[in-house]
Automatic annotation (TrEMBL), chains A, B:
Source organism per UniProt: Triplophysa tibetana
Region of the whole protein represented: 50 to 224 of 290
Organismal lineage: Eukaryota, Metazoa, Chordata, Craniata, Vertebrata
Tagged with keyword Magnesium: no
Family, similarity comment: Belongs to the STING family.
Subcellular location: Cytoplasm, Perinuclear region; Cytoplasmic vesicle, Autophagosome membrane; Endoplasmic reticulum membrane; Endoplasmic reticulum-Golgi intermediate compartment membrane
Keywords from the UniProt entry: Endoplasmic reticulum, Membrane, Nucleotide-binding, Transmembrane, Transmembrane helix
GO cellular component, one term: endoplasmic reticulum membrane
Protein name listed in UniProt: Stimulator of interferon genes protein
Amino acid sequence: NVAHGLAWSFYFGYLKFVLPDLEEKVRNYNATRVRLSSHRLHILLPLNAAAPNKPEDEDNHVVFHENLPELQLNRAGVRQRSYKNSVYKITGHNNETYYCALEYATPLQTLYLMSQDRDAGFGEKERKEQVLLFYRTLSQILENDLECRNRFRLVLINDEHTGEPHYLSREIIQH
Amino acid sequence: NVAHGLAWSFYFGYLKFVLPDLEEKVRNYNATRVRLSSHRLHILLPLNAAAPNKPEDEDNHVVFHENLPELQLNRAGVRQRSYKNSVYKITGHNNETYYCALEYATPLQTLYLMSQDRDAGFGEKERKEQVLLFYRTLSQILENDLECRNRFRLVLINDEHTGEPHYLSREIIQH
Ligand SMILES: Nc1nc(=O)c2ncn([C@@H]3O[C@@H]4COP(=O)(O)O[C@H]5[C@@H](O)[C@H](n6cnc7c(N)ncnc76)O[C@@H]5COP(=O)(O)O[C@@H]3[C@@H]4O)c2[nH]1
């Protein structure tokens, strides 16, 4: 049950300390730069685990704006390891603009690559159920952490979107 | 089998691209700075998964020297995500000095924290066997990647070292 461990890893190794820290950053950001439409970190979960490195490649209505100031921590021997989040400008179909910090759930890239590697013992047909298990496990973990629970939004993306060029921006704004 | 997924994640999400990139960095580093005793990334695997954030806390003969230049990549929506490795100076018991890039295997921190959280479904007595499963799985994966195979050293650390203050430096140098 790979998704179970990856959800816990995403929490203990990242969200548990990044989400509380983000709260502070986002408050300072609104005061001085563009006004964010939401304070929450939007975490994108494509159902087929195919997470690209640049959301623009999926939908050109999702455009990188700039990075928030980085957080630096000593982690497991790496000195001043850097954690940063990216703010995107999203354009809706009525031309409304929506700014927020967003990223794909990076562990889904591992699920995807494992399903393609015959040594990893994990196939394409298990992938979707693993993404759903990841989503359910992560939701429960984050709900139980008072320091995290209102600071994120898990956005399940149904990417069997035959040729709809702006499905991603639509799903983020509508959410 | 949490350790299995964490080993694959450590490979696909980190070592697969960091190890080949490190080769280049280390060659430039030797030419201009301190001479590294080994080009390999030393990855520490404490058997009880208790990986501290600063190795100095375990053994003051392992001292941070400086970071290598960082690698920046667009990853899953995060723009210019930073990957860096730290060079340490290790002093042996004959006062010999040994310089190398080293870090604890970060996923072991997840194993440790999961074993402490009663919701994670994973107890302290399974922890050691999960560390060994992580070690075996990771060894196989890295051995099969020609771009990785001579660029790392997995250092299993037996940390049931009753009061030996320099067990870590000894294990790194002797390895
Ligand atoms: N030593 C070290 N230095 C790094 O820069 C690094 N980056 C990743 N890893 C380890 O490789 C594996 C794969 O990483 P992935 O990004 O898929 O998952 C990551 C990712 O989903 C999220 N995360 C961690 N750091 C960041 C970050 N800086 N930005 C975004 N997401 C992050 O939280 C998960 C667990 O992180 P770690 O528990 O630190 O260990 C990871 C993991 O075991 C690293 N290990």
